[in-house]
Amino acid sequence: MMLLSKRALLAVAAVVDVAMHARPLPVAAKALASRHNLPPRHLETLLQSLVRASILKGVRGPKGGYELARERRRITMGEIVRVAILSEESDDVTAANSSKLISSVVAPMVVDAGAGLMAALDSVTVEDLCNRSQKADVFQSSAPTVDFTI
Question: N or C: where does the chain have the smaller number of CB atoms within 10 Å of the terminal CB?
């Protein structure tokens, strides 16, 4: 059972991809989209949300694209997931508001479970995900990258 939305998973994948490929040039949205088999315009709104949250930095120009706004070890998976969740369209919650069972029992349990999940995601950094990606040889054609940021 997948506990995160496709959008949240895509946001994490996009940030890790940028972290692994943004040296020496920023990663173009088109290249990022092609590696994940997505139309670029589908990804662009998510990337802009990550820029507004200071997770990614947008670089303009012909050789522009996206790069990390901070060091890989200073960005957590939890931060990325929160941005993706907030950028999703709000669901219809009228049923939840009208049901006493949902508002009194079910929703508080889900909130507690979600807090546990987010705490676990907050302990995972982009650096950790990059290391796991390299061990799994996810990007076979990519040379290993080193982050020299201090």
Answer: N
